[in-house]
Amino acid sequence: MKEVLALIEKKKEEFAQLALFEFLADKSIDPRQRLAFAPCMAPFAMMFKDINAYALREEPTNNPIQKMINQHSYEDGRHWRWYLEDIEKLGFNESMQFVDTLKFLWGKETQKTREVSYNLFALCVFQTDPILKLAVVESIEATGTVALDVIAKLGDELQQLTGQRCRYYSASHYAVETGHIQADVDDVEQFLENIELTEEQKEKACQAVETVFASFSAALNEFLVYAKNHSYQQPFAKLDSVTAITFSNEVETPALTEVQLLSTV
Predict the structure, then answer these.
(1) Each residue of 95-110: b (16+ CB within 10 Å) or e?
(2) Sequence-ordered list of residues with C-beta below 8 angstroms from that of 86, at least 6 positions apart, any chain
């Protein structure tokens, strides 16, 4: 498993260089604007409960690795409640016609986010080898550690600005993410490194790692485009195609200028 973990670490370092993280850390921009993409996370945040319950979890089982995955899935599968609380706190719980809601959730602007869930299901739901599920879990945990580290700091800014403490976009969420599968093992990293894989397992596991990181990277690039095309004050109303948001040092509202917005990161 050492080779797989080494690949995960390499992909994690590349993942940390995504432009979204620089955007999230930019204190010259209102922290609410930096999270203008939060509604776009709904397909993943809500589907992650099902991924844990129906794709990763397998009960009953006598396999020790699968038992670890099952234990981990119960912890990770409950974070959707925090997401819903934060959507309310951030002011994104606006009334929408049901058809409009469906168009948004299955629209072009959330395509890559939906693909994350589809790919995770495809990697795990028909997977009988817990080792390969483990590679997926470790990859997810690596992406989460990077993202939540940045978001935890943003959450502190939000609390100072709004007086409300988020739970999903917060240090408390980051605190429960260890970067590895959560299991009753004294040294999880050492335990993982000692797992012996066949060449076939190693190849498949590395392919899964590549897929997970590529999927999450595409989704985060999509988030950045959304945040640059939408004001947090009207999160579902797209700005004019020739209007871009330029952010001043004042954190109340984004100033608008008539310049062409790049549609790619």
Answers:
(1) eeeeeeeeebbeeebb
(2) 38, 166, 167, 168, 169, 170
pLDDT of residue 188: 83
Q: How far is CA 15 from the centre of its chain?
A: 12
pLDDT (tens digit per residue) in 75-91: 888 999 999 999 999 99
Which of 43-47, 92-96, 140-144 comes out lowest in average pLDDT?
Answer: 92-96
- In this predicted structure, what is the pLDDT of residue 127? 83
Cα-to-chain-centroid distance, residue 101? 21
253 burial type by CB count under 10 A (0-12 exposed, 13-18 middle, 19+ buried): middle
Please tell me the pTM assigned to this model. 0.88
Beta bridge partners, 257, equal 244
Q: Which amino acid is located at 83 in the chain?
A: Y
State the Cα–Cα distance between residues 73 and 223, nearest whole angstrom: 25
Q: Can you give the three-state secondary structure of the chain, one letter per residue?
A: CHHHHHHHHHHHHHHCCCHHHHHHCCCCCCHHHHCCCHHHHHHHHHHHHHHHHHHHCCCCCCCHHHHHHHHHHHHHCCCHHHHHHHHHHCCCCCCCCHHHHHHHHCCHHHHHHHHHHHHHHHHHCCCCCHHHHHHHHHHHHHHHHHHHHHHHHHHHHHHHHHCCCCCCCCHHHHHCCCCCCCCCCCCHHHHHHCCCCCHHHHHHHHHHHHHHHHHHHHHHHHHHHHHHHCCCCCCCCCCCCCCEEECCCCCCCCEEECCCCCCCC
CATH numbers and ranges of domains, the chain: 2-257 (1.20.910.10)
